[in-house]
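Two quick folds needed for the group meeting slides. Do the first one here.
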Amino acid sequence: MKYIITESQFKLISELERTWRDFEYENDYNKIKDKVVPYIANQFDFYDFEGEDLYLYDSDKKLIAKFHFYEDDEEGIRGELYFSRDHDELLEKRFPHPFWMRHGKYLVSDAFNILFPEYKVLDVRTGYLF
């Protein structure tokens, strides 16, 4: 079954998901995000554009993340951020167990927005990047 929704409904659902998901643990996230987000942002050392993708690399020129643009309008450039599963596993080991699992996608999104404030991340997914 497929549902047809408007763009404004999609935007509302995206915002509600983020608020809903962080709501119960918001205090935990707010206590540590000012220290963790800059750390993650510092992992991005190089970037490169190719078509509708922005690739982010670490200092060893290993691919950490990819931002895929799929919408460009008066609200700005929006898309999805794909975070390397290899790097995700590394950060999982550095933070207490439930913290990274609950907040990892928001930390990565906030770190990306420090470097690229003109882009709006609608979703963050982790996986093995090619």
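Then this one, please, same format:
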Amino acid sequence: MGRRCSAVVLSLFLLAMGRFAFGSEFGNIHFGQLYVHPRIGVEVMYDDNIFLLGKTKQDDVLFKIKPGVDFDYNRDGKSVRLNYLAEIGRYVDNTDYDYDNHMVDAAVDLQFPSGLMFFVGDVFRRTIDRLTYEEYPLVKRTENTSDVKVGYEFTDRLSFRVGYDHMILDYEDAPYKPDPSVVLHFSDFDRDMDLATGTVFYRILNAVSLLGQIEYMWIDYDQEVRRSDAEGISGWVGVTGQLTPKMTALIKGGWQERDYDGPQEDWGGGVFTIDIVHRCTETLLVSVGGSRRAVESTYDVNNYFTATEGRAGLEKQVGPKVTVSASAFYANSDYPEATLHAGHLSERSDDIWGARVGLRYDIQQWLSTSFWYTHEERNSNHDAYDYDDNRVSLGVSAVF
């Protein structure tokens, strides 16, 4: 362990001293319109509840190294990107849960003067990051999402877009289990999800459009043992674009129906998505957002839970090198099926909230250091799922 700590501390020291190792001429690597951005980050984090347990917490220190590289090509409304990012995590005490996360993001975006657009992208992740708030942490999984969009601008005001997404989700092994006698086969939740979308945009102002959208979804589980396949349809209306010179937004709402093959309850209800970003001043950025939707569940006999979320954040630049930020969120998860808890049947409902504050100092344009504190809590009417978690982290990152 001493050798590992020494290596990480040395890496932090070298990065922090980078302003002396590299001159100001160090910049982006490019070959014509192809830009290459190597990146590296080092972080040390203290977490007082690494397994998100209730009363029986277990703390640890986690060291992370985050290497990556971005390739970006842009020319005449046509762009290509290929990004790779890894996160190598090593615990001081719980070394059985050391991990290596990998993410690859690739896309081609073509915009033609005729009004035709074409987009194809793929995001691959091999990670232990939580997929939803209900899961235990440290659940290894592989997911791949492919995305194709084709659009056409009929007139200066009217355009349409059709899209197709395909997601593959495979859990690799069982997560950490507070009770070793409980066998959790997360492979029962391996699935494919397909989403076909059609959207019509009508521009009402210079940079603001109304939208109408139809979505059709298929959910196909590899094993229909604990979960059922489903089909669903949803309709949306909304507005998107630059609402004011300083504000951009996507606001849409609608209704969704989801029909499951098994005997468990189907889902039908209102859905919405809100994303608003407002630049109050040159140095202050504020964002708010929220959503309501059905999310596939891994809890007991529930096919899904209804997730309602809200969030807000701000970022303030203090002087030429210092940026402070703060954010908070609240989420509610409601489960439709009654399950046994504390000797009686009831439907589980969780309230989750969290807050984060941070400080970033830009040593150079390409080199920065940051400090973060994060708090998260879950309060459930099934109190076995309550937890609170505090994390403090210090990191250094460089993007060339």
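Slide caption for protein two: Confidence is low (pLDDT under 50) at residues 1-26.
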